[in-house]
Amino acid sequence: MGYYKNLLLGIAAVVLLTSPAIADPLPAAPDPAPVQTNTPNPKAAAETPSTPAATPTATATPSSEAASAAPQQTQDDPVLAAARAKLAAEPAAEDEHDRDDQKALVEFYNSRHGDGLWVTASGLKPEAKALAAEIANADHYALDVWRFKVPKLADGALTATDTDSLADAEITYSKAALLYARDARGGRIPDPSAQLTTNLDRRPQWIEPKIVIDALAATHEPDAYLRSLEPQHPQFEKLRQIYITMLPKDGKGKLSPAAKRIRANMEEWRWMWLDMGNFYVLNNVPEFMQYVYKDGKIIRSEKIVAGLVDKQTTIFSRPLKYVVLRPAWRVPESIMVNELWPNLIRGGGMMTKYGLQIRSKDGSRNIDYRKVDWASTDIRNFEVIQPPGRRSVLGHVKFSFPSQHTIFMHDTPDKWMFKPAVRTLSHGCLRVWKPMDLAKMILKEDKGWDAAKVDELDRTGPLNNEIPITKEIPIHIVYFTAWVTDDGKLKTFPDVYGHERRITQALDGQWSKINKGHDHLAPVEPDFNPEALAARTRDNDVDDEQYPARQNATLGNMIGNALGLSN
Known about the structure:
Layout: H1 2-18, H2 20-23, H3 42-47, H4 64-69, H5 78-89, H6 96-111, E1 119-120, E2 123-124, H7 126-136, H8 163-184, H9 192-195, H10 209-217, H11 222-229, H12 234-246, H13 257-269, E3 279-284, E4 289-294, E5 297-307, E6 317-319, E7 322-325, E8 329-330, H14 333-345, H15 349-353, E9 357-360, E10 366-367, E11 382-386, E12 397-400, E13 409-410, E14 424-426, E15 430-432, H16 435-447, H17 451-460, E16 465-468, E17 474-478, E18 482-484, E19 490-492, H18 499-507, H19 530-538
Parallel strand pairs: 3-17, 5-14, 13-15
Antiparallel strand pairs: 1-2, 3-4, 4-5, 5-15, 6-17, 7-12, 7-16, 8-11, 9-10, 9-11, 12-13, 18-19
Helix pairs in contact: 5-6, 5-8, 6-8, 6-10, 7-8, 7-11, 12-13, 13-18
């Protein structure tokens, strides 16, 4: 028994002496990998954002040889570390867009390791010089050079001991780049509808600051990237080339009124959809013209009539939803309240003359207007309809692109309105000279219908025949007072609504001078006293001068004499 015991002890000793995993001392455990070890390079992240970073499996055990060969963690450049700390301690900016930039930069620099984007302990990187040169050229894009605070640092001017100033420069360059990106997309007027007038329903086409800073980190040509953020519409570039010739020669003089006009129009292009559409309709209000584009080429042009100065056509873009043949007309609330309501109090002669019908708000019941005391009844509790027919103010066809503005395009029986050069004559909607030609072109594009089919539907189809549009066909109502033709000639148009003036005042910093005009989105209130009007009517003492709404009509108002002018 003692023999076997000694034999087993001997075998165990041999095993202990020959096993490398046990005989050799265990290597010291490596320091825990910092988070940045598994963070993709910022450039690679920008190019392939969906690719996950490789991570070791939980069961992998590095050998002592692999552990000794592992690269040491790259130490951050002192400037980068200082910039990161400064951003973390920076107080929040007052402007919400500046705060968005701050947040994006904090996230970016917290995840970046190695060196800075623009500056190292040795001075400026080539990317910083390219960025500064492009920003210095901002006036060639009708931007304000003075808005971009770019440090002018020469190589060697700052040494490794001046880390604090270099970190400030790193942050300043990044902020200038983000501000430039914002301004290139219309950021100087962040909310035209609120800051200028509700009749400008536009928004800057911004890019999120995180996307911008990541893109800058992924390129060695930040100047080219900034240029790519400018509007790519051909008309913008044509205007820009003319604008450059109007700049003061010494770079210090004032812009001429002609240059400011070009600048205002360039700013409007910064608000336009980046993709205008493959097939779209563009209505330029100051020119009173409509253009149909396909594949970037004009395939149709036509006269239009726009809204009166005090009943403006709103500037906006929406996709076309319906072409309506033989349309009914739902009278807008503004016309119901201040034009039809007074007439109902005086007897309602327009109801019969123009074939109008009053219905309950939900459209379920017809109301006999003769049995209502309109002096004590609010017309806003009802809806007023003009059925299709020869007297219809919408004519044969209506083009519907719904919005909060209740603006659309349509036919009109009053062709005389297309004769004047300045055609601000409607109650807001756009009247088209030959709308059936437009309908045929759109329905051919959307459904492949020929002209004969559309004509047949117009003659014998259902009343108020809403034909849904299935393709994306944008309707752009624009306000360009300057336009460059294909042969390079500059055409200008009257600033009929004052939008060019408002934009110019904003870009000049004269915000207090901007007259926003009437808020057309505000609830409609009567500009007369119903009971007082009823009393005057009973006394046969009605004076038209007491009711300004009825004085706004030219050549007859919309309802009554004006029916031919409203929508």
